[in-house]
Structure formats: structure tokens, C-alpha cells
């Protein structure tokens, strides 16, 4: 699934990084990667967070950008190489089962990825395992669906057209970890210390409905294939629903949505 949308993530990498800039800044602020440190980015997509971290650890440090889809890590590695960042290495890793040694990293980061893990508790435990004592981790996930209409209205409209909930019940999706208390308990339960969860506003603006819908659908891994399979009558019905749904978010010069992410952080204790 994610391999199939990797080209779209490569095409819209700059947009994804701009959209997630506030999340990235906070992830790096709470983990504070240092020169010479070793950083792991999970579910890296086109690698925006890892690339930002690579500048902080410098040439004496190393950043490993990883994703379950090798097609994503290839894009991240190419972007890093284009920027002359020789301290970035790419690996194909599964969030639920990290094929890495114990205590291998000073910092672990994940932007918009943990909510797609099939077993987020296991993924959190894996993060703790690969952290060195005193090492810090931070993840960002999308907050409640109602606080993110830029994506929620798409799910609502597609669900109405298809006659089935989107995403399907029991399938990990963008809002799977939208409850701050649950997210905090997940990290605490994995054995991480000093766990904190905070809200980070992530507003989104686009110049037109078409620009917003094109990029949102292209980057929505589980949704992109379903949208591509819609026949023409269903496409027209979907567009009509979306035009009505986004009406409250029009400003004189742009489509402006509110958005909200949760940033959760913690550290591995020394004992």
C-alpha cells in the first residue's frame, strides 16, 4: 500500500514537510539531537524529519531514515544526497519489529507514522529497546478527527459515497491514536519515563479545492487506491459533497483548515 503511493510522496515531499513543519520543530526541540549523536527516524516517508535532524548531529553523527516501504526510503536517501548530507543512511524497517540492536540510538523520531502500526504497544516497546539509557524519543500523530477537517471531511464524503466507513473498523488509520490519554499510556506502558503529550496546531491552507484534494488524496496511503477506483458518477458525487463540506473553510484568498497534532515524548531511564 505505502509502496504504491511513494511516488506521490516524493512529488509532494516539500508540501508534506511544510505541512508538518510545526510537528518537526517540536519533535526536534523535545529530543534535542546533539552533534555526534545517532538518530533513527521511523516511518520516514520522504525523510523530512531525518534530514532536519542530520543537520543537528553534524558530520560526526548519523541519521538512519527508515520505512516499511523501501520505495519511501529510496526517496528519502535521494533527497538527503541531493542536499549533500553524507551522514544519512536508509534502512527498510517495520515499526512493529525493528531489526536493530538494543540501545543503538540516542534519539528516535516518528512523524505521522505510529498511528499506522498494527500493534502500537509493540512499536513503542521497540522504540524503548533501541534507545540508549537516557535517550529520548518523540512521535507526532494526528489529533481528533473533528479537529482535522482537512482530512476528516474527505473520509466522511468518501464513506457516504461508498456506503461504508472510512477507514474500515479495526484498520489503523490517521486518527487511530487521537486520544491524548491513550497515547500517553501507550508510551508509559512501554517503560518510557517522563512521558508528556501536548497539542500542536497544524493549520492547512491551499489555493483551491482541486489543489487540496489532489495532494490530500495522493498522500493518503489507505485512501488513494480507493479514490483511484471510483467511477465517474461516484467522482461527481464525491466532489459535490466535498464542495459543500469545505464551504465553512473558504477565506477570500484560500481554503484554510484548522488542524491539530499530538506530540508525545519520553526517555529511556538509566535504570
Note down, in words, how this protein is organized.
This protein is α/β, with parallel strands linked by helices and 271 residues long. The protein has a domain at 2-144 and 170-205 and 259-267: 3-Layer(aba) Sandwich (Rossmann fold). The protein is 44% helix and 21% strand. The chain is built from eleven helices and nine strands. It has helices at 2-11, 13-19, 21-31, 48-57, 70-82, 120-130, 149-162, 180-189, 209-219, 221-228, 232-245; strands spanning 38-42, 62-67, 88-92, 105-111, 131-142, 193-201, 204-206, 255-257, 260-267. The strands form two sheets. A seven-stranded mixed sheet has the order 3-2-1-4-5-9-6, with helices on both faces. It has a two-stranded antiparallel sheet with strand order 7-8. Strand 1, helix 4 and strand 2 (62-67) form a beta-alpha-beta unit. Helix 1 (2-11) packs parallel to helix 5. The radius of gyration is 19 Å and the shape is globular.
Task: Sketch the topology as an H/E string, one letter per element.
Answer: HHHEHEHEEHEHHEEHHHEE
Mean of residue pLDDT values: 93
CATH topology of one domain: Rossmann fold
* Overall number of strands: 9
Structural class: alpha/beta
CATH architecture of one domain: 3-Layer(aba) Sandwich
Runs in which pLDDT lies below 50 for 5 or more consecutive residues are none
Rounded to the nearest angstrom, the distance between the terminal CA atoms is: 40 Å
Percent helix: 40-55%
**Proportion of beta-strand residues:** 15-25%
Radius of gyration: 19 Å
Coarse morphology: globular
Characterize the biggest β-sheet. 7 strands, mixed
CATH class of one domain: Alpha Beta
Strands side by side in the biggest sheet = 3-2-1-4-5-9-6
For the record, what is the CATH homologous superfamily label of one domain? Vaccinia Virus protein VP39
State the helix count. Answer: 11
